[in-house]
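Chain A, query sequence.
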Amino acid sequence: MRKLSLPVRLALLVAGTMLPLIIFASAVIYRGYEKDRTEASARVLQTARSIRTVLDAEAQRMTGSLQVLALTNSLRSGEFDRFRRIATGFLEQYPPGGVLLIADRDGRQLFTTVTEDVTSLPPRNNHEVVRRVFETGKPVYSNLFVGSVLKKPILTVEVPVIIDGKVVYDISFTPPLAIFQALLDRQRPGADWTISMFDAEGVNFARVPNPQETIGKRASPTLFAEMFKKPEASFETVSLEGVPLITAVARSAVTGWIVGAGISQASLASPLWRDLGITIAVGILLLLIGVAFALRMASAIARGETLHALLVEELNHRVKNTLAVLQAIASQTFRGASKEERATFDGRLGALAKAHDLLSQEKWAGADVQDVVNRVLEPYAIIGTRRVRISGPRVPLAPPRAVMMSMILHEIATNAAKYGALSNDAGTVSIDWQVLPAGEKLQLTWVESGGPRVHAPTRKGFGSRLIERGARDQLGGSATADFLPTGVVYTIDSAVA
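Chain A, predicted structure.
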């Protein structure tokens, strides 16, 4: 897999930081929206209850007034001409359009405020309401129906006239629907609310908005399917105008009529979308600013890395030139030395050069122990064969320690090639290292076997002193050699940090 460039990685870092914050903020806003919806449902139900209370009060006021009329002597004695003046006074307390009539058990109109000539009037066409009044002897509240005289949708409040314990007449009052419409206009909380009054069959008799277009129509299908299940309930509906609503209904125990109130879901969702839009816009703006800074930082880092690489290359060039000059000086100085002595010096100088090459590849950030071991053993062509076993974790060494470790291992490998396990075809070398439990020391062991019989040297040469002093002074540890009959064993301790 191709490694991502630094600008891309920094941009992804900024995005990985900002996107979760944007998502978290959006989640908080949405939770607030859900809370607002819950509170809106409770508020809508409370509004429906309040309007139902006002409606019940108005219906009971009408009923009480009619019951007072039922006790007048002129009515109880059948003197309807005298009763007309009282009926007219009753109607004056309401807006124009109200009608008061009196009917017998058969629905025949005996008196009406519409006309004095009752002989030409048709019988009442809501016989079921009349029957209930005479059978129960209690007030009855009708559903919306088309009146036989007015020829338009009306509601009636019916009260029995009881004489000697028997229902003799039915007083029927047709209140102007404007009464209920004015009540809704006063109770409507805002323009985003839809409020209706329905009869017991779910037909509108007052509504805001659009009363002229909706009075006489049944509730919308989504509302009609739910409004009769419980006396009070909250649910989601779609209005007759196609507006999604959070709706509540409250049925009157007095009249059987139903109040439905709903608030537009869009009025709740609009703040949600506004807040989400602001949050996302600010988040994207901050994201773009962050990405811009990241790209600028990446450009600065890239320039720094380019300069660093240039300096490293210059350092490598100078080191190689210095080693070449040093090798030339040594060649002139050791012109009279033996071939073996010159080869030894060249080998040590080569080990130093290889250590510098390894550090150059890592841009002088350090080198891993295994890479150092592989570089030292590379000239012997034994890596990957049964003659050598290399084992240990990945442990980085600082540049000075990597150079000294390479020099020490070169000395050990040179001795093994001359006198030890690598001087024949059967010898083997095992190189293992580990970080000691304290975590601050690296311990490397070089174990030879299968080579010529080992004898401890009688004196210490330059190589032995380089190993001991280098381990002590440069590695911050120690180096020991055990010359066992089966093969030499080197133990090298080095600081890690």
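The longest strand covers residues 166-174. Residues 348-495 form a domain with the Heat Shock Protein 90 fold (CATH 3.30.565.10).
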